[in-house]
Amino acid sequence: MKLIIFLLIIVIALGFLNFFVYKLGNISGNISANSLDKYATGIVKKCSSASYKPTCYEKEVPMLMDSISMEEAFQVTRIIQDLDKSYQYCHVLGHELSARETAKDPGKWKDIIPRCPSGLCSNGCIHGAFQERFRAESLPGDEIERIKPELKHICEPRENWDPTGLERGTCYHALGHLLMYITDADIYNSSKICEDVALDMNGRNWSPLCYDGVFMQLFQPLEPDDFALIAGKEIKKNELSSFCSKFTGEKRNSCWSEGWPLYRDDIMKPEGLVEFCSGKFVTDINDQRSCYLDLFYVLAAQFQFNIFRMRDFCEGLPNPWKNQCFANFASRMIETDYRNIPTVIKWCSEVLSEDGKDTCFRELIFYSTYNFHAGSPEYSQLCNGLPEPWKKQCL
């Protein structure tokens, strides 16, 4: 009798256990369906009192990857941006998320690249995967020669990756950062390798974007490892022109443009930017145009994509740079986040001069097939949203 009672107790206990597990599973499923919103809401609340909220987000969101995937962490980032409209530039966070994912198995770093989301965080995800793989090691010359073929094709389309022009450009830019790590910050060797590996199978030369990554690594370190990498090689403001004069052509242009942090206070004013991009160091009109393009992209982020600040800045410039300012800010906003398409169309529509409006819309037409694949939903949204005659030109 006691045995029967004991067995009944066991059966009842197991029944309760199964019921509890079943309920817990359902509860977990419900939490899973809503957890991303909850994670985002919790982080926004936690960071609301931070002195600089982006730094707080860059710390809190990656920690979620102990329990959620990289892709889900990017979804949380999107929700945070919806909740906190001031947080529109999450490039550094993109670095952190993919770097954390790559660190799990550095040997699979190339597999991270196709998983990176497009049109979010200025494609910082691709950069993080590259840098994390080679962050802790420099390679001898013969080893660099051995991996060159691999590097040469890393940004090319492949079976599980059909990149847009923007994604390929981002990849080649990230390659420049990577080269600085594997050469132990040998900027001359790094830029030379760009020439060897940044020519695609169709003969298109992507090396200027690779140069940008090389010089950006020198002038804009982010992490402690970045600062350690360039220790003793820092360039001061009064040394920039003489340092960049050691290079020619596109390398010289990249050096000067990427050295903008040394002139941060100056370029935040229209007259300071004109002096930087049209002064004694940059005299060729094509080089000036390239400088303004690079700096408008920088300034959009510095202004935290605040429409009013960007508009006031553009209005303070002389033409043709005023028109280019409106146009480049427009393309930068789309590159940063594809959800900005309606905002960008409105931005171009409100440019006061007809020449400026035309320049702005033509910029969007160009980027319609660079940022997006022709026929994609984003491409259709952009082109169909343009007023005539630009809509017809886009489609």
Overview of this protein structure:
The chain has helices at residues 2-47, 53-63, 70-83, 91-104, 109-112, 124-134, 141-153, 165-182, 187-197, 207-219, 224-229, 240-244, 249-258, 264-267, 270-278, 285-302, 307-315, 321-336, 341-349, 354-368, 377-385, 390-394. By secondary structure, the chain is mainly α. α2 (53-63) runs parallel beside α4 (91-104), α10 (207-219) packs parallel to α13 and α16 (285-302) packs across α18 (321-336). The chain starts with a helix and ends with a helix. The model is unreliable at 1-31 (pLDDT under 50).
Key phrases:
single chain, 395 residues, mainly alpha
Record the SSE blueprint.
Blueprint: H1 2-47, H2 53-63, H3 70-83, H4 91-104, H5 109-112, H6 124-134, H7 141-153, H8 165-182, H9 187-197, H10 207-219, H11 224-229, H12 240-244, H13 249-258, H14 264-267, H15 270-278, H16 285-302, H17 307-315, H18 321-336, H19 341-349, H20 354-368, H21 377-385, H22 390-394
Helix pairs in contact: 1-2, 1-3, 2-4, 4-6, 6-8, 8-9, 8-10, 9-10, 10-13, 13-16, 15-16, 16-18, 17-18, 18-19, 18-20
Helix/strand/pairing category = mainly alpha
In terms of quaternary structure, the protein is single chain
Task: Report how far the terminal alpha carbons are from each other.
Answer: 84 Å
Major β-sheet, in short?
none
